């Protein structure tokens, strides 16, 4: 009897060993699958965040370039037809932009272009609205020079009523003008966030049911299937923080990561506009949370029949072998699906316009798409990142690379990827913004240079005087301010024409520039009036000698291109500035001194004429 039970015991023991081993393999495969899904989801969210950061930065930069377009500023809000043409061109082929408008400082729409089914359309003047009572307008009109405003996600409002069906929008605003605050009003762009997120979910193969965007207080913004809880359109009853309180508490304490609760497996990253938008208004939206949620049931139910204890008790060796074969076939099919998905993802990454770089925790390159390789060696790009980029919080900003003939400027974002505290590497995006930077430098130069003479203009002179005053207050130095006004210049224009007058002004500018030191400033305030900042002058006598040389060089004859020779003179006023001075006070005082000199010259000329 004992010998009869031995085979049964051996078979039973074998079944137990096979069952335990199978259960262990199943559990290990489940954990490995979960770890891979967590890494995949976090990488997708990091890529989604980088894409949205580029989108936000691009929208703001495009609006800034439009607001500082010299052709647009030359017309101003009073020339509706010309401004409408600029805004219509800016809206073309941009279906996510709901509308673009110019709002004056009193809150009135000066120009508005709406997106329609057949393309952008300018709103007639009689349909333009007063927006002064809109809550979103106050932070826009409070923008300072160079700032940008990004609103929270809000519903679109027409004629004081929330538009139905809901159109959740992001509002972008910048001051209209170069180097100004909102004195000329603001340019405002509305972008449909639901369309933007739907396109992003499709491009990155994100699950529609599990991809969410939340506000900073835990309300749903996307998808709208979750209700209107994230929009101020009523009292929300269904909110993410109420449905998943444990998950929300974990997310609020971290910037990104993965974790599990009873509801499922979560991956999340925080998206903050301040990371990607330069000079963001402090009243802008603080940010949002991107979340991927996969319920436990969708994963564990696939394994339940294998992991259940009934498998160990009731399944024979044949059934167990068949189950293992089926499991192997399913895993193989899943691997093929994952491989195809990876191939599609790699193809999408390779085709992306921006450079994408993925490295492991040691900094070894795991992925570099074609756009990134076109920018340069990945190791060189990583070497250009600042030390703080490798911190736990990530980094975004601009880096420069020295090329053969010029420096290339890149907009970079560098984000760590962490799974439950374990570093997995970094994901970075790099975009070449060299052309944009060159245009910004050109606009800055145009804003501080006199177009005719190439000298500093009034704004540049004021900045130079402020710098001289600051140095005087810090070190006790003194400096000289000289104002020159050409005498008998009008007859040159009247007799020889304005082209000859312009030639005289440029010649005088060149002579003045050649007469002073490299670090002195020569400015043209307009017409035939020039102001010079003479640095490091301690005595009035020394300044008077400089003035005498300037007046003398101006009085030298000037040969016009026509062959005629003309001669002008200059009246001059000069004084010393120091720590106690102000810019306005200095300019007013030197102006009075110049006019006193002009009066003395006229009296002297009159006396000479009477004696003759």
Kindly describe this structure.
- There is one protein chain.
- With 612 residues, the protein is of the alpha+beta class.
- It has three domains: 1-315, Beta-Lactamase (2-Layer Sandwich), CATH 3.30.450.20; 355-439, PAS domain (Beta-Lactamase), CATH 3.30.450.20; 448-611, 2-Layer Sandwich (Alpha-Beta Plaits), CATH 3.30.70.
- Strands 1, 2, 3, 4, 5, 8 and 9 form a seven-stranded antiparallel β-sheet that branches. Strands 11-10-14-13-12 form a five-stranded antiparallel β-sheet, with helices on both faces.
- It is elongated.
- The termini are far apart.
Q: Low-confidence spans: pLDDT under 50, at least 5 residues? A: none
Number of strands: 25
Summarize the amount of helix as a percent range: 40-55%
Percent strand: 15-25%
What's the CATH H-level superfamily name of the largest domain? PAS domain
Measured on Cα atoms, how large is the radius of gyration?
35 Å
* Level-2 CATH architecture of the largest domain: 2-Layer Sandwich
Question: Would you kindly provide a brief summary of this structure?
Answer:
This protein has 612 residues and is of the alpha+beta class.
Short key terms for the protein model shown above:
612 residues; Beta-Lactamase; Alpha-Beta Plaits; 3 domains; five-stranded antiparallel β-sheet; 19 helices; elongated
């Amino acid at each position: 009897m004992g010998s009869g039970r031995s085979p049964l015991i051996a078979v039973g023991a074998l079944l137990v060993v096979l069952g335990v081993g199978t259960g262990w393999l199943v559990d290990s495969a489940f954990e490995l699958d979960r770890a891979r899904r967590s890494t995949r989801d976090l990488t997708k969210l990091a890529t989604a965040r980088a894409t949205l950061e580029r989108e936000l930065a691009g929208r703001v930069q495009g609006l800034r370039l439009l607001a500082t377009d010299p052709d647009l500023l030359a017309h101003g809000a009073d020339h509706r037809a010309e401004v409408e043409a600029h805004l219509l061109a800016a809206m073309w082929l941009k279906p996510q932009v709901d509308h673009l408008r110019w709002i004056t400082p009193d809150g009135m729409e000066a120009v508005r272009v709406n997106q329609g089914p057949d393309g952008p359309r300018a709103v007639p003047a009689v349909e333009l609205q007063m927006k002064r009572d809109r809550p979103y307008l106050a932070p826009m009109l409070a923008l300072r020079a160079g700032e940008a405003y990004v609103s929270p996600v809000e519903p679109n409002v027409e004629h004081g009523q929330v538009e139905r069906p809901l159109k959740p929008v992001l509002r972008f605003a910048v001051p209209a003008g170069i180097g100004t605050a909102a004195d000329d009003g603001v340019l405002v762009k509305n972008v449909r966030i639901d369309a933007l997120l739907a396109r992003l979910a499709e491009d990155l193969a994100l699950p529609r049911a599990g991809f969410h965007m939340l506000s900073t207080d835990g309300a749903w913004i996307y998808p709208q299937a979750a209700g209107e809880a994230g929009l101020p359109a009523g009292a929300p009853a269904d909110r993410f923080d109420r449905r998943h309180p444990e998950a929300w508490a974990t997310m609020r304490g971290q910037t990104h990561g993965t974790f599990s609760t009873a509801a499922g497996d979560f991956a999340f990253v925080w998206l903050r506009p301040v990371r990607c938008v330069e000079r963001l208004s402090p009243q802008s939206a603080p940010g949002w949370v991107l979340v991927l949620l996969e319920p436990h049931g969708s994963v564990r139910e696939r394994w339940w029949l294998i992991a259940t204890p009934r498998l160990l008790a009731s399944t024979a060796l044949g059934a167990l072998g068949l189950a293992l074969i089926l499991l192997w076939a399913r895993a193989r099919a899943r691997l093929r699906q994952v491989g195809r998905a990876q191939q599609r993802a790699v193809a999408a990454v390779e085709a992306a316009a921006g450079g994408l770089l993925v490295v492991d925790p040691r900094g070894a390159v795991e992925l570099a798409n074609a756009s990134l390789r076109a920018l340069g060696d990945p190791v060189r790009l990583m070497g250009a990142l600042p030390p703080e980029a490798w911190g736990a919080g990530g980094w975004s900003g601009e880096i420069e690379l020295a090329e053969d003939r010029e420096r290339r400027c890149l907009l970079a974002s560098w984000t760590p990827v962490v799974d439950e505290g374990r570093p997995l590497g970094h994901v970075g995006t790099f975009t070449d913004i060299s052309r944009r930077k060159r245009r910004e430098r050109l606009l800055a130069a145009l804003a501080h240079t006199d177009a005719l003479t190439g000298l500093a203009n009034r704004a540049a002179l004021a900045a130079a005087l402020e710098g001289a005053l600051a140095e005087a207050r810090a070190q006790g130095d003194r400096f000289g301010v000289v104002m020159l006004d050409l005498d008998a210049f009008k007859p040159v224009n009247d007799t020889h024409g304005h082209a000859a007058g312009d030639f005289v002004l440029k010649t005088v500018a060149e002579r003045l520039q050649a007469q002073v030191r490299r670090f002195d400033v020569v400015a043209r305030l307009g017409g035939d009036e020039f102001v010079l900042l003479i640095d490091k002058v301690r005595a009035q006598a020394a300044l008077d000698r400089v003035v005498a040389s300037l007046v003398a060089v101006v009085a030298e004859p000037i040969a016009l291109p026509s062959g005629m020779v003309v001669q002008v003179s200059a009246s001059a006023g000069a004084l010393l500035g120091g720590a106690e001075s102000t810019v306005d006070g200095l300019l007013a005082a030197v102006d009075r001194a110049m006019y006193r000199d002009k009066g003395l010259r006229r009296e002297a000329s009159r006396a000479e004429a009477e004696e003759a």
